[in-house]
Amino acid sequence: xxxxxxxxxxxxxxxxxxxxxxxxxxxxxxxxxxxxxxxxxxxxxxxxxxxxxxxxxxxxxxxxxxxxxxxxxxxxxxxxxxxxxxxxxxxxxxxxxxxxxxxxxxxxxxxxxxxxxxxxxxxxxxxxxxxxxxxxxxxxxxxxxxxxxxxxxxxxxxxxxxxxxxxxxxxxxxxxxxxxxxxxxxxxxxxxxxxxxxxxxxxxxxxxxxxxxxxxxxxxxxxxxxxxxxxxxxxxxxxxxxxxxxxxxxxxxxxxxxxxxxxxxxxxxxxxxxxxxxxxxxxxxxxxxxxxxxxxxxxxxxxxxxxxxxxxxxxxxxxxxxxxxxxxxxxxxxxxxxxxxxxxxxxxxxxxxxxxxxxxxxxxxxxxxxxxxxxxxxxxxxxxxxxxxxxxxxxxxxxxxxxxxxxxxxxxxxxxxxxxxxxxxxxxxxxxxxxxxxxxxxxxxxxxxxxxxxxxxxxxxxxxxxxxxxxxxxxxxxxxxxxxxxxxxxxxxxxxxxxxxxxxxxxxxxxxxxxxxxxxxxxxxxxxxxxxxxxxxxxxxxxxxxxxxxxxxxxxxxxxxxxxxxxxxxxxxxxxxxxxxxxxxxxxxxxxxxxxxxxxxxxxxxxxxxxxxxxxxxxxxxxxxxxxxxxxxxxxxxxxxxxxxxxxxxxxxxxxxxxxxxxxxxxxxxxxxxxxxxxxxxxxxxxxxxxxxxxxxxxxxxxxxxxxxxxxxxxxxxxxxxx
Length: 723
Hints:
There is one protein chain. It contains 14 helices and 29 strands. It is an alpha+beta fold. Strand 2 (about 15-20) and strand 3 form a beta hairpin.
């Protein structure tokens, strides 16, 4: 007989409920649940090996989030018509889950763990990313995998001044703050999101509101676990320890590591000195363990010694920063490394900037494209086009290493997304005609290349003539805590990122925060410490912004001469057919005659016309042509017309694109003409005035002579009041 599923339902506000269920699907996994809100259903499974692999020295956690297209009743658009590698959106959601789950496992737990989260039913209004981490945590909670705590994750958005937990997709479109927060019932674990220049206190309030909502979700998971009868977690094999060996390592190397740590050396020089100490340590241990000449230390002893040595480095450097208030490169806690900025350094890209901060360097370019270059962002629920694209590349030479060159990894996708969300806040609106692609290539890296990308991207956008109103900068912060002491570090090094208790990146303008990515590794972090960290981040951000404004005070007034020209027009819906013409005849003629490219779409009951060309003259000509087609002729206006054909009774002239009228022979000159021969010919350009329309036929009445000086003594024409 099949076991009955167990479920728990709770309210998330606004009459919305979420149900967690286990025992029905994927019952051979160590833990499996479904999470449902509306028609959105997420399946999460967790499986862990019973024993670690031989020699395993790190925690191998794999988290994958995937959206099945069938969940929304759609067939994938790829050639194979099946889901392929994870999209960038799925990678980003996988990272949100991974970063929140990873600190929950014991430090000495090295068994392989795989958490798979799958969207199996989609609701167009319910955002699945806000429920994905809840599902992953619940799958672990109902298993015997030895996680130490239960967590959850919620989205908090500010909509019309009100903070909303897990808003609907349609509500999110008008939000000016959008943050995902993960936490246990006691501690904040992770924060990521974007805002339109919110204050530090606004962010703190969003975190506090999120934490209250998360506590309800954690309690629901605890009740589900109790209902399933999970009371203990599995035992696991812990790595062997040798405290005598640890003592020998600490006794020999502590003072030596401290001397290197306070030597203010560069990254590679410091690394070389630490390596030398390790070699000296191994030689010392050979003597201590009476290893014969020509023999080597036992492999297990050598491996443990190296692990203890790296642990020692970690603690010595942390203690030095906490006690001496001095950092590895000699800076004070709030000091930003030396800055150097240069723009317009590459002749061919449409915009470029080189941003250097200490040993971190980003070379960033901007390319301006047409609407045809927009990026299709596809998920199970919807597909939309993005006009702003940012790609981040991290080649191995940036850290002096050799690695195979593959496609962008999860780290590159995540760092690029943070920079994109930050700079997007200052991008012009939908009426801006260009598609903009920013590419950051990291040439050197020692601490927060993602923040260098934000700064370099802002400089390059202004260099390209993109009308961004303000600079956006970013700074990476660190935190070290121990026994009541703490130190907040501005502009962290790579080593400080590794040894810190909190890594958080804050981007923004002079007026507020645009983006945040925060990972907290320590329990019991108070909001007061977080407030101090955010205030210090603000000061670091302002220091960098001041230098950026000195380098580039404002965006170029126009794009560079070699950049493509783009103009966007909005025309009445009724004129779309006139611009296109029968079978596309008119729009093809405009493109052929002007050398421009024209894209016309109907949006919001209007015609959106994008005109693209490599020369300003060709774009201006196409703009004038289209404006002429959609213009409504006004009586009394003067137009520059082209003679199309000559008749015995006058000339037919085109005074607006697609609009012709008869210039009667009597309206060509004040002098009586028997013929137009020698006066006008086809192709002549003449100015004419629209004097009216024929009440019977509706044809336009045009006059040239009314614009010419009237000979003296000639009577004024009847019905005309102007000479």
